[in-house]
Specification:
The chain is of the alpha/beta class. Helix 6 runs parallel beside helix 10. The chain folds into two domains: about 130 residues, 3-Layer(aba) Sandwich (Rossmann fold), CATH 3.40.50; about 110 residues, Rossmann fold (3-Layer(aba) Sandwich). The longest helix has 18 residues. The strands form three sheets. The protein has a four-stranded parallel beta sheet with strand order 2-1-3-4, with helices on one face. The protein has a four-stranded parallel beta sheet with strand order 7-5-9-10. Strands 6-8 form a two-stranded antiparallel ribbon. The chain is globular, with a radius of gyration of 19 Å. Strand 9, helix 8 and strand 10 form a beta-alpha-beta unit. It is about 35% helix and about 15% strand.
């Protein structure tokens, strides 16, 4: 097997399943685990894959994601890759099935099934331990200039819902496309009702210099910097993300 991953979360998941030695390509955003990915060739970003370089690496499998990769990229991959694995987890519960799917796809590698079972058991335990004790209107910001947030049918929003954090705006974004990550003008009436503003560390690197700007956007809210990797990366980070979220919600 010669595996290419064009999704940071999936790259980390492959290593967690013991499939790192089979990885022949990754994107520049696939940075975890640092020691493991260092020797794996990069083939561009998630949106601008170098298809010529990837073709030369001759992968037997390429892992992609509906949110993170372009449709035309996936279509081009089908011309030279025997197995294109398309993923789209939209809730923490979906990760259970994702791990099971990868374990089945790569069941020829020793130890994959046992590692998958352990990851799935940990995830189920953390899901059972996480409950919605409140109903808090939340704005989760992923970008500025313009401000961008998450729709309610995204993985991030559904993760936050496990502790009763209800993301605004109250809208779904659909199965794919820009609507899943709405842009704000800053004068939406519902901003006055937000009680928590979470500034993600990625994809925009929010830091302390942005706190006052966010407070002006939602004057009634507490504003905090949060670890975007724990709240948006799925796979081995889902269980850790639930634990982190419970701490934030206390």
């Amino acid at each position: 097997m010669r595996i290419a991953s064009l999704v940071p979360s999936l790259t980390e998941l492959l290593f967690a399943l013991g499939l790192g030695p089979h990885l022949v390509a990754r994107t520049g955003y696939c940075v975890h685990p640092a020691a493991g990915v260092a020797a794996v060739p990069k083939v561009g970003g998630t949106k601008d894959v170098n298809l010529n370089k990837l073709r030369r690496l001759a992968p037997t499998h390429v892992l992609v994601n509906i949110d993170e990769n372009r449709l035309d990229t996936v279509q081009a991959l089908r011309d030279f890759v025997p197995h294109v694995v398309v993923t789209h987890p939209c809730a923490p519960q979906d990760v259970d099935g994702l791990v099971a799917e990868l374990a089945q796809t790569f069941d020829a590698a020793p130890g994959v099934a046992a590692r998958a079972d352990a990851l799935r058991a940990e995830l189920r335990s953390e899901l059972a331990a996480t409950s919605a004790a409140a109903d808090v209107p939340v704005l989760y910001l992923i970008w500025r200039e313009p401000w961008m947030t998450v729709a309610r049918d995204t993985y991030i929003s559904r993760l936050l819902a496990h502790v009763g954090w209800r993301t605004l705006p109250a809208a779904d974004g659909g199965p794919h496309g820009a609507g899943r990550y709405p842009t704000l003008t800053g004068d939406e009436p519902w901003l006055a009702g937000v009680r928590e503003v979470l500034l993600s560390s990625e994809p925009y690197a929010f830091d302390a210099s942005h706190l006052e700007e966010a407070r002006a956007l939602c004057p009634q809210a507490r504003v905090r910097l949060v670890d975007g990797e724990l709240l948006s990366w799925y796979g081995p980070r889902t269980a850790a993300g639930l634990r982190y979220l419970r701490t934030l919600a206390q």
